[in-house]
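Lecture 7 notes. Example A: sequence first, then its structure tokens.
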Amino acid sequence: MRITIFEDRAAVGAAAAEHAAAVLRKAIQEQGSARIIAASAASQLEFLDALVQSPGIDWPKVELFHLDEYIGLPMPHPASFCRFLQDRLISRTGIERYHFLNGLDDTANVIRRASEAIRSQPIDVAFIGIGENGHVAFNDPPADFDTEQPYITVTLDEPCRRQQVVEGWFSKLDEVPKRAISMSVRQILKSNEILAMVPGDRKASAVKACFAGEISPMTPASILRTHSHATVYLDHESAALLTPAELSTFQDAS
């Protein structure tokens, strides 16, 4: 794993998009297609906006997998992750193959279909964020580092649910669903590359805990340190609590 640090969230998004576009172009050129995982979060906005404008990507040859979704939330809801991906990625690129996690369908069937699809071939690159509680996808602490199931049902902890309110997706805590479908930690780690975009001062404590402490289910994103092709994109605000000594283990900064 390596960490790169940029001036602000716009610079994080631009740099990560350049990296992502290069991965996609190479995969399409060498394999004829690319398979990606995409997160739905405020941390991804600048990145996705830059990515969809990147030249030379044959988007109809890209297959998209959904990272997580609330159980019981309809797609038209402003906080729906299906809607997020539809509005900010699919409709802007012409991606034709995508695997939504429908929060209103039978959960077991949704998980079965998505798991069968993602197991069929390797994932070229995963685009993810890190939550204020250190989660990856909706794997809140203590995260399950052991399950081999590609998708699982999870119960969201209160810090995770409060983050959704603070970011404006819901108006109050009671509106945030308590259960979700999430890609498992081990499935994320099976991606050939992982790009984690983590800007903003509200992520600084999670960044410190995950990358300066032990690798632990209590700091789920710490597991990224075991992946040889994971890149974490920080800005000065999210990196603020890391010391130079702590950064030196991972640093390849800009």
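Example B, a different protein, same format:
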Amino acid sequence: MDELDITQEKKQYYQLRSELVIKNLLRRNINGFYAADKSEALNTVMQMIPPGALVVRGDSMTVEQLGILEELTKRNQNKVVDTFQRDAKGEMVHGSEERSRMEREAFTADIFITGTNAVTLDGKLVNTDGMGNRVAPIIFGPRKVILVIGANKIVADEESARERIRNIAAPVNAIRHVMKHNRTEFENLPCVHTGKCVDCRHENRICCATVIIEGAMSWNQDRINVVLIGEELGI
């Protein structure tokens, strides 16, 4: 027995927390599924996407880590709209006008797939966006929404969710865009230099719209689908 290896303990911990979240999601008319690892999560997601469905991807590191777009391309049965497609240097493939047009396709898509900044133990989904192009389609538009979420994003309550966004998700994401994507417009954001939110009024602030989804109407109970993964994924 290796006392220094707590892999199995963490797996059980993440599964227990995920199962509690899923139970509470169902009470809110949101579907919940548990996947032990990335491979199982990818299989779960692919089964949710029927041939011929138009799939639009929202910004999400977890979507990339699962390899969902690559698997859809390999399957070659769906039109996939990826506004965040990048070249080998990390530069956006599509110009701003084309990206804006593509982002609007999310509202008429069959499936919108993205991640979530935080999910509470009682089943609330908490997200913060710069422009709203991720949170808006989660709320309304596409026929089905698939949210892939690492169990590390499970938090106690709404305040803990906001704390996670302010002091983990937002700063790390801003730093990522500066370091990997050469987004110089974010270089002077306070969180890039302090590692925490100071509720700035910077002209390029990335935290402009916060949305808390507390549930779905009964006739929309199969629209939002959450896949919780027993690994640490995303930001």
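Note on Example B: The helical segments are 7-27, 38-48, 61-66, 68-75, 96-104, 135-139, 158-181, 190-194. The chain has one domain: 7-229.
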